[in-house]
Amino acid sequence: SLTIGIVGLPNVGKSTLFNALTKNDVLAANYPFATIEPNVGVVGVPDSRLAVLAGIFGSQRVLPATVDFVDIAGIVRGASEGEGLGNKFLANIRESDAICQVIRAFKDENVVHVDGKVSPKDDIETINTELILADLQSIEKAEPRLTKESRLQKEKVAVLAAVVEAKKILEAGDTLFSKGITKGTELGDLLHELHLLTTKPFLYVFNVDEDELTDDAFKAEQSALVAPAEAIFLNAKLEQDLSELDDEEALELLQSVGQDEPGLATLGRVGFATLGLQTYLTAGPKETRAWTIKQGATAPEAAGVIHTDFQRGFIKAEVISFADLVDCGSVAEARAKGKARMEGKDYVMQDGDVVEFRFNV
Ligand code: GDP
């Protein structure tokens, strides 16, 4: 499955956030090596439709989609030079499908900032510089080879041209993602063989003081720093507290700081979208569930997420849109009203499709 790597300078609240994410109290301090080995934390993707479906079907349980976050410790200035942890750090980012930067905005004199002052803009630049330098190194390594290959292999001419273009952007201090060059775009795909870091989608978590959670002007200013990447604002300590409370207490605490949902829920939703993922829904008395597919997946591919046999033996999918199902109140009524569609193997799944697959085993 796809993963999002969490990176950030030391002391910005990564471990605190990650502890909330994994809902355990494994503090990095108690495990000196825990910051070296990557850890995985799983967060649910909030979807209000699930509870509605569970109500219609009388489902015993609800299973939301999830996103995997990997805690990648060890970014420091010079990481791109491959010193010590640097290599490991870059390798871990290379394996991630998206990059989540945690940025410190909270002010606390008791927590030392590595560069002596709290400045989201500078911190973002420090991290991006390391990623950009690492990409420039990859390019410098690949360029002579591509130049040679392009003399004999026509298809390498375009790759070389893309590399030259990418190099210009990186040398100007920009990430490729910030210029719209990412997987699925023409340039992004040409660059694929170089396994660059900055073509991965980025998202930013600003670890802010509680009063900044509701400060729209502040948030707009920070968001502008990272656009087109998404920015999320949360307080890591608050998230850790929330993760230890039951639902009712958590809601009360959230409301006391003017929030509708935990920052981690927002992170789950935004992370999921950043990865280019989508869900479809299944529902029955046993469970209502959101299944994860790539945007643009066909019905058989969607069936394959449940079981490879479902894809192999795919016959058709009975699809009712969530809105139609809610309007009709039951599958039987939706069928009677002609709202249940039989879709074949070329059908492209749409967000909110409620599906039942027909297949041969
Ligand atoms: P990491 O090095 O990025 O993993 O940072 P930690 O999660 O270990 O946090 C560093 C220090 O900052 C710890 O003492 C945390 O308790 C503190 N900290 C983390 N998040 C916040 C926050 O939102 N507000 C304040 N005031 N302190 C925080």
From TrEMBL:
The keyword Transferase does not apply. It comes from Streptomyces erythrochromogenes. InterPro entries: ATPase_YchF/OLA1, Beta-grasp_dom_sf, G_OBG, GTP-bd, P-loop_NTPase, TGS, TGS-like, TGS-like_dom_sf. Residues 2-254 form the OBG-type G domain. Belongs to the TRAFAC class OBG-HflX-like GTPase superfamily. OBG GTPase family. YchF/OLA1 subfamily. ATP binds at N11, V12, G13, K14, S15, T16. The lineage of its organism: Bacteria, Bacillati, Actinomycetota, Actinomycetes, Kitasatosporales. ATPase that binds to both the 70S ribosome and the 50S ribosomal subunit in a nucleotide-independent manner. Pfam families: MMR_HSR1, YchF-GTPase_C. Keywords: ATP-binding, Magnesium, Metal-binding, Nucleotide-binding. SUPFAM superfamilies: P-loop containing nucleoside triphosphate hydrolases (SSF52540), TGS-like (SSF81271). It comes from the Bacteria. Its cofactor is Mg(2+). Residues 276-359 form the TGS domain. This is Ribosome-binding ATPase YchF.
